Amino acid sequence: MTFFFDLSSLLSLTSPVSLRLATPTDLPNLLALLAQVVPLMLAAGNRQWSADYPNEAVFRADMEAGHLWVAELEGQLAGFAALTHNHQDAEYAQADWDFAEPALVTHRLAVAPAAQGRGVAAALLAQAETLARQQGLRALRVDTNSENAATQQLFPKLGYRFAGEITLAFRPGLRFFCYEKRLA
């Protein structure tokens, strides 16, 4: 017997996290959140992001494509994620999944330090699942730096399976762990 469980509806009942598409007026807060997160990532040995990436141009491109989602807690920006339809560089073919199958891919997921542990990342990933279902997609994909212990714990808790390790040409010297969640 299969049960359909919509995590986003549970979150809306139990969490004060609200989600919406980002707008250009969010840019100062996005950059401020980024300025909080990147030094903490680097201090933890996680070099996935730097002072140069992501940046305002990346956020603007995500917004123009309708991909950048923001999460708010109590009216304050608490996190963001780019939720893209099948945006995967060729290197993603290294992972243990069907690269040719269209998927909803989460990129640039971040949560403000003060909001960590309050369901923000889970809410953004639930939004990815909602969008995938709306678009008729059966796969959700995400990758994280091999040094990002927090996301390596989070993704399996939310039903993602480890799908291997890849390298990306635009981030030389780094290893990335891939995760996939199949939708029924």
TrEMBL record:
The name on file for this protein is L-amino acid N-acyltransferase YncA
Q: Does the keyword Transferase apply?
A: yes
PROSITE patterns per record: GNAT
* Organism of this sequence: Hymenobacter psychrophilus
UniProt-listed InterPro entries:
Acyl_CoA_acyltransferase, Bact_Acetyltransf, GNAT_dom
UniProt keywords (A-Z) are:
Acyltransferase, Transferase
Which positions fall inside the N-acetyltransferase domain? 17-184
What domain of life does the UniProt record list for this protein's source? Bacteria
